[in-house]
Amino acid sequence: MKQILFVVCAGVLSVVLLIYATLASLSANGEIRRQRFREKIVADVDPLGQTSVYDGELLSMLADNERGRLASSLVLVSADLADPAFQRIVEFENLGELGMYSCENMKEFLATLKKLNRLESIFVETTSLPDGTFESFASLPNLKKLHLEQTVPAESIESFNELRPDVEVKCDFVN
Known about the structure:
The chain is an alpha/beta fold. It is built from 5 helices and 6 strands.
């Protein structure tokens, strides 16, 4: 009986180890694919085109690349803006347009956002806008366009318009 129990336990342990090894391999393969994808984005970056950035590692790779740093339009997609790598966005000297689509932790990014003095256009969609966001937008001296593709309180838009009547604001979902 003990031998049967031992064999069963050994079999179960073997299956568990096999599953773990398979998942670890898939995870490693997934990271290899993500890294190759990042490398392709960096290699194909068009300084005059729009570049989508989905994590801090990719933003760092672009910042470390001479041509990547010339990007004039970045769209942060489903990015965790609390990642310290996103502070490197200030290294993009030609950055005139910034989009944020479904990003997290905007509050942590506001101090960095205020340093992007060359920004002329901001697009935000499905990204939570914490207190202080509109003040940060208003502090950008070259901002000309603000496009919000999400529900925003009317008083936030009104306050922003009072601070920056020179900025064209598009927001279809005001409550």
